[in-house]
Amino acid sequence: MAYKHISIPANGVKISVKNGKLHIPDNPVIGFVEGDGIGPDITRACLRVWDAAVEQAYGGKRKIHWCELFMGEKAAEIYDGDYFPAETLAALKDLIVSIKGPLTTPVGGGFRSLNVALRQELDLYACVRPVRYYTGVPSPLQHPGKVDVVIFRENTEDVYSGIEYAAGTPENEKLARFLREEMGASFFEGSGLGIKPISAFGSKRLIRKAIQYAIDNGRESVALVHKGNIMKFTEGAFRNWGYELAREEFPEQTITETELYSVYGGVQPAGKIVIKDRIADITFQLMQLRPEEFDVLATMNLNGDYLSDAIAAEVGGVGIAPGANIADHVAVFEATHGTAPKYANLDKVNPSSLLLSGVMMLEYMGWKEAADLINAAYPEVIADKTVTYDFARQMAGATEVSTSGFADCLIAKIKTSPAHLVEEEEHRRHILEEERKEREAQRIANPDEAMVISGRIPQTVGAIMHSVIIVDQTEPVNVAMQKMRDRNRHAVLVRPDETDPRWGIMTQGDVVKKIISANRSPTRVQVGEIASRPVVMAPEDTTLLEASQKIVGARIRRLVIEKFGEPVGIISDTDLFRTVEEFGWAHEV
Ligand code: NAP
User: Fold this and answer.
1) Are 279 and 226 in contact (CB under 8 A)?
2) Which of 85, 127, 197, 372 could disulfide-link 153, Cβ–Cβ 3.0 to 4.6 Å?
3) Helix, strand, or coil here: 401?
């Protein structure tokens, strides 16, 4: 397409999508919008740092060809009052990867926020926020270095869909009447009403992106954050669709947290991402107490909104947090703060948010080496205490530098000690890996305790089952007794054979009743003879309520957990009691 005011750099090549994957040439054209207020100051500084890192990492073999696109006040000047010109939208799609500074939201006149318009026009459904700590940045946490997460927040639905009816309006009254009279709902008179749509489509495309990111970047886990214990058909459905998607689309690359314990004994198999879920309020708590439990988080819109700012505040505040809004491929990276108009053109503010958004962009392009150089140079500059005014006022003995001065310090580090910077970044990854191993050792040594401290709340029998001992019908009872004692189990399962094609179970109670009290010798009796049959089985996703009802209904003490008809675990009434005593019980409606 021929652009009127946008000129595509002649020597650059556009990024393309081939077979569903981004194809990044060595000389890609990347769009940038400098933004309003402080936007030009920070953009000018960041472009120099990104270019220096790419030059240093690839020795000239790779180079970004920047293409200026116009939005906001600058666009209004060039395009006769149009703040978001059609050709800017076309170019953002055409170039696929872009980065932007903050934009003023024009007040009044029926303007919608330019950022909202951008998200809607490009269907940028995933708001991605990596939050990690850089040594030296002021933080309220004792161990901020343990924070290293990436939040994928759904950007298009949930209570932000705009389906709201103010109290007292005819629309509100119509809906209230329908809900009361036709749906049997009850709520206070004069309530404002809002709808919370959560779809399988919207949830799955977001969670797919989070899982793919975890796979591409060697991450440990994806946590589905929700309040499904209260809102079963919206937040609970998000959780269920997440597990379903992982099972259907990533069966080779993912395991569930339940399988981590029940099948793998707490040892995470190499190359497999653990899919887990956490209640939203527990996630908020744990992100302060044990942030290392989290890696990639997938959230709905509202939870993600709160969570991304809360987590960012732990490691230096939203002022330095990078972000991006991403569609299937088109991605717009952006500073998360506003235009801070009082500082415009003073060359004063902190360029970190935009700078680190650019690091995220380099990672998105697969240019990890350039991203690493900035990631490692950044804490070194902070450690030298050469910082912009906002950090300087929080750090004793700091030297305040300008926006461009801060960029100069970074570039100097990148150019003078690249080998050292690469080592630093590798060292940081090594420490995180060591910590991961420690958590694994704890899961193996004490799975129950690991479950509690990691915020995992068991909701299905799969989450609390024990492994089973399986024996043949012909095995002497004394041998089976020995196995039970060695592994501290109260029962063994008995394999079907031609004499009896049903699974059986022999418990300690059976031994007392049918051997000891009958005065028989355990060495002379075979397990098959005293086992009880048939065993009652239930699948792994049976809820604790359903399991209890099954146990009571069948007048048994133990439920065998099956997968594809084969037993994979066992739970007892004692396990149900202990779980409820430990984690609480909210009756299900
Ligand atoms: P803001 O521009 O983010 O500024 C609020 C305060 O945050 C500033 O006064 C400053 O604090 C601090 N701050 C922001 N960016 C900083 C930086 N780079 N370095 C150091 N300190 C920084 O928020 P606002 O005043 O509410 O919004 C101003 C305009 O920006 C509005 O038109 C709003 O709609 C727009 N906005 C745009 C975006 C976006 O485009 N993504 C996002 C949010 C807001 P001190 O005064 O303490 O120094």
Assistant:
1) yes
2) 127
3) coil
Tokens of 266: 């707490």
Mean pLDDT by 10 residues, the chain (589 residues): 91 94 96 97 98 96 98 94 94 97 76 82 95 86 90 94 92 97 96 96 98 93 92 94 96 93 87 94 91 95 93 82 94 93 96 96 95 94 93 90 97 90 87 88 83 82 88 96 92 93 94 95 95 92 92 94 89 92 71
At 459, list the tokens.
């909701």
Question: What is the token pair recorded at 227?
Answer: 């309040």
Residue whose CA is at the smallest distance from ligand 1 atom 18 = 350
Helices (H), 263-335: 280-289, 301-314
DSSP-H helix ranges across 159-279: 170-177, 200-216, 235-249, 257-262
Ligand 1 centroid to residue 103 C-alpha, Å: 10
Q: Which residue from 383, 373, 384, 385 is spatially nearest to 411, judged by alpha carbons?
A: 373
Query: In the numeric block, which tokens belong to residue 457?
Result: 């709340």
**341 and 335 in contact (C-beta within 8 Å)?**
no
The string of DSSP codes covering 528-561 is: HHH-BSSPPEEETT-BHHHHHHHHHHHT-SEEEE
Atom of ligand 1 nearest to the CA of 340: 2
- The residues that are catalytic are 160, 227, 281, 305
164: amino acid identity, one letter: E
Work out the burial of residue 135: count CB atoms within 10 Å of its CB; fewer than 13 is exposed, 13-18 middle, 19 or more buried. middle
- Would you state the structure tokens that stand for residue 393, as one six-digit string? 């006022």
* 5, two tokens: 């005011």
Return d(Cα 283, Cα 529) in angstroms, integer: 50
- Ligand 1, atom 40, lies closest to the CA of 102
Strand 273-279 vs strand 193-194: parallel, antiparallel, or unpaired?
unpaired
Q: Token match 């933004």: residue?
A: 35
Q: Write out the two tokens for 552.
A: 């009571």
Residue-averaged pLDDT of the chain: 92
State whether the Cα torsion 400-404-408-414 is positive or negative: positive
Pocket of ligand 1 contains residue 338 by CB under 6 Å: yes
d(CA 475, CA 494): 9
For a ligand 1 pocket test, name from 107, 305, 320, 337 the mutation site with the most ligand atoms within 8 angstroms of its C-beta. Answer: 337
Q: How far apart are the first and last CA of the chain?
A: 57
Tokens encoding 362: 């380099």
Alpha-helical runs (H) found in 22-103: 39-58, 73-78, 86-95
* Contact in structure between 570 and 560 (CB atoms under 8 Å): yes
* Amino acid symbol at 50: W
* Cis peptide bond N-terminal to 534, omega within 30: yes
Surface-to-core class of residue 498, CB atoms within 10 Å of its CB (0-12 exposed, 13-18 middle, 19+ buried): exposed
Distance 39 CA to ligand 1 centre (A): 10
Q: How far is CA 244 from CA 148, 233, 247, 472, in A?
A: 26, 15, 5, 35
Q: How far apart are CA 84 and CA 88, in angstroms?
A: 7
- Signed CA dihedral, 531, 537, 543, 548: sign only: negative
Per-residue pLDDT of 343-369, as tens digits, reads: 999 999 999 999 999 999 999 999 999
